[in-house]
Write a structure and sequence with these properties.
Elements (H helix, E strand, L loop, with lengths): L15 E3 L5 E3 L3 E7 L2 E7 L4 E2 L9 H4 L8 H12 L5 H14 L4 H20 L3 H8 L2 E5 L5 E3 L12
Antiparallel strand pairs: 1-2, 2-5, 3-4, 4-6, 6-7
Helix pairs in contact: 2-3, 3-4
Length: about 160
Amino acid sequence: MRGAMGKAVFPEKPAIRPLKGTDYVLAEDFYFPATVGGWDVVVHVAPGFRTDGASIPRLLWRVLGSPYDPDVIAAAIAHDALYRGEIVPRKDADAAFLALMEASGVAERKRRWLLRGVRWFGWITWARHTPESVAEARRHISLAFAGGGKTTKRGFAPNPERKHQ
């Protein structure tokens, strides 16, 4: 799961299946490394988690590719889990998205454009979160310390800085 310099490596892409509209659902367990509160952890996202992929507007698909392209889907699901569950502040979720795209081999130009998109427009999605939507996302997410240790299941404390991201 980790390559050189501790970067995430996704040897297999997450298994997803389409729902109505543009959303997909995770069909199998998905794991990725992250830093939460200064701790290196492994985030587990359980089947049933909904994703909209990389949230690329359809108008830009010909330029940036589909939100479900194999090169970005793992980083996009990781970003969605961190965002929707409010596991970390927005800027940290966006930084993880960038690092995971780089580790997945996404071209630099594409990474920069996708990062700009989440930085410029991600606040819209973040502001629409409700306690119910965050709880639903967290129902599918658990954490374990990267070096082993106790897994924290769905027992996340609310992020007090949420409004200021």
